[in-house]
Amino acid sequence: MDSKNYLIGLSGKKLKIPKNWKNPSGKWHLGLKALYKQTVSKLSEKLPEIDCIVWFNGEKWCVCIETYKKNLSNAKVLTNFCDENEFGILDFKGNEIVYCISVKNDGNLLEIFTREKDSGSNVALTAAAHFPNNSKQDGLAPGAQIISMRIWNPAINKSALLEHVHKALLKCIEMKVDIVIYSFSSFGGDEATENLVHRMVNEHNIFIFKSILNYGPFYGSIPYFNKNVESSIFTIGAILTSEVQKRAFNIRINKNDPPPPVVYTFSSRGPGANGSRGVDFVAPGVLVRKLSKISFGNFFHRYSSPNAAGAVACLLSGLKSKSIQYSPDLIKFALFKTAFLPKNGNIFEFGHGIIQINEAFEYFCKNMKDFKNIPKWMPKAGGIFFGNRNQTLMKQDFKLSDFIDIENQDTTNWKIQVSKNAENFMEVSKINENNSFFVKVDTNILEAGNFNFGEIMILHPKIGSIFNIPVNIIHPLIIKGPQNFYIKKETTLFFEKPFRIRFFSESVKICDIKITAPKSIITDLWFQYGFPNSMNVKEANETKKRLIFSRINSSKTISVKIKEMELFDVCFYQKIQRVFPSASFKFEFNFKNDLQNVEAVDEKTVLIQ
Questions:
Q1: Which residues, at least 6 apart from 243, have a Cβ–Cβ distance to it below 8 Å?
Q2: Residue 197 parent element (H or E)
Q3: Where is the Peptidase S8/S53 domain (predicted)?
Q4: CA 70: distance to chain centroid?
Q5: Which residues lie closer than 8 Å to 295 by C-beta, 6 or more apart?
């Protein structure tokens, strides 16, 4: 610094240091840093570099990065966020960026933390916000302490990101957190990180909540890169309730006959790894809040995971107040026993059902004496799959040990039972002396093309059901060649409740799908197709198209090239909105071997006429 209190920043800019900036040592640490513009787009925009100044005032480390201001007396000076919980807002090149800092290595390392869109704030608001003067805006657990960790940085590559994930999880152990809301797509399939997740759960009693991904509405739309931690974490799907329809979307609701909860179409569905449900529980998936000055304009948010985590935080608080010990496994069991599965609710959409936190608390308190009798679920326990299209009567043998740990368990009086929805097409034997049983399925009475499921409940004489094995039956409508094949379906679409049909094509080339809406209204629907055996969930997600129907144009035809000897899934649905009403539609499927225009159509192209 010269005699006039000027420093030359690394950018070459002259920086006049205010006289009230105390620096007994006279040492200034200078740096350059380029931040990223906060944006709703997928690509982050890199902003010009700014000078950074770090110094020690005799008591604490101080930082100024608002060096773009002409008068640094007006610039924000921060210290370590962990010490004083202060933050600043950069108003740089027309971009307002919220930030905080951390100084390490005797002032030689400056870490600048910025937020990623509105996501972290909305997660925190949903789970544990507290407004002393307006409790109606509180989150689920307003007494909880919030620790925010950001692992994403657009400047780093994937391998570095995994290091950040690992570091954040280790920090959670160090800080002895109770619950982690993991707002990222996956744990990277990294073995070290997966082992750390198991350690957090089994050794440190840490609960990990994660929202299911947004690749719905197809069944089997859960990527498998979390399969090795699926049993340890709480995977939460998103539901739409009648209350949310009324308050968030201004939909008129019949108070005497409200619509049942449905899973949002964006929410991925099971089966998951090894035929599991893929989703443990569901919770409301929409957050409604007023837009802040530095918000990105999103009004509705997909936050089922913080909803569930906030509710469970209250459950843990209640158990702690009664000095009742718990573990993630026992809490998941109590939630499983008390969850509400709506009538005709599909287990691959709802998992065990909607979390009922009060009932779970009461169940835990009343039955904790029996918890020592609960066998652990096997880490990779999945489900049962039937899918031989050439057979209508199918049978498979299983062992109890495939699903639960029966070591040191007396299974003499255990029973197994088929869920009510599957009693007419599924049969189970008794458990034999080898702890084995068989399952039979008869598809003769099932409508081809539908998606069928059931459960096999393992019953303990004292506790009741201790594990429900999900069963998935693939029974497609088989399309044989060489002749053309025509089928017509009519249905009324309700918001977020898809109409699905599954085919298996042996030799046809093209499927023309004609969709007809009522001529009296203007409405819309979304169309999506996929080939489950050869198309991954991201590719299937890219096939979706929105179709708008009017009085003048009430029908549209879509042509899709068919893959021979493969399953072909088709899905139609209406997203909830304020613009168009739900409606009845007619769907006509015409499978043919007409080679005309086949070359113009590929697996990723839809022709709309």
A1: none
A2: helix 191-204
A3: 120-353
A4: 45
A5: 118
pLDDT digits (tens, 9 = 90+) for 377-419: 887 788 999 998 888 999 999 999 999 999 888 999 999 999 9
Other beta carbons within 10 angstroms of residue 34's beta carbon come to 10
Half-sphere exposure of 43 toward its Cβ, with a 13 Å CA cutoff?
A: 3
Look-up: residue for tokens 């909305």? 122
Residue with tokens 């590929």: 602
- Centroid of chain to Cα 573: 20
In terms of C-beta density within 10 A (0-12 exposed, 13-18 middle, 19 or more buried), how is residue 96 classed? exposed
Rounded Cα distance between 120 and 104, Å, is 24
Residue 386 burial (CB count, 10 A): 20
403 CB-contact burial (10 Å; exposed 0-12 / middle 13-18 / buried 19+):
buried
Best CA proximity match to 531, nearest among 185, 212, 221: 221
- Within 10 angstroms of residue 486's Cβ, the number of other Cβ atoms is 10
Q: How many CB atoms lie within 10 A of CB 80?
A: 18
- Count the neighbouring beta carbons within 10 Å of the beta carbon of residue 597: 11
CA distance 183 to 233: 13
CA distances from 322 to 80, 325, 603 (A): 37, 9, 59
| pTM score of the predicted model | 0.88
Q: How far is CA 189 from CA 171, 226, 328, 374, in A?
A: 20, 6, 22, 30
pLDDT tens-digit series, residues 168-223? 999 999 999 999 999 887 887 788 999 999 999 999 999 999 999 889 999 999 98
Q: Six-digit token pair at 94?
A: 């027309």
Contact call for residues 435 and 411 (beta carbons, < 8 A) = yes
SS3 (DSSP) at 461: coil
Helices (H) and strands (E) in the chain, counts: 10, 32
> If you search the block for the tokens 């006289």, which residue do you land on?
19
Nearest-angstrom CA–CA distance, 231 and 304: 19
Count of other CB atoms within 10 angstroms of residue 340: 15
Residue 40's Cβ-count burial label (10 Å; 0-12, 13-18, 19+) is exposed
- E strands within 277-410? 281-284, 286-288, 300-302, 384-386, 393-399
Total length of the chain: 609
Among candidates 544, 532, 419, which has minimal Cα distance to 476?
532
Report in angstroms the alpha-carbon separations of 289 from 258, 293, 296, 419. Answer: 24, 13, 12, 40
Supply angle C-alpha 256, 261, 267, rounded to 5: 160
* Cβ proximity of 596 and 512 under 8 Å: no
Residue 578 has pLDDT above 60, yes or no: no
- pLDDT surpassing 80 at residue 594: no
Residue type (1 letter), 301: H
The CA-based diameter of the chain, rounded to the nearest angstrom, is 93
Per DSSP, the three-state class of 491 is strand
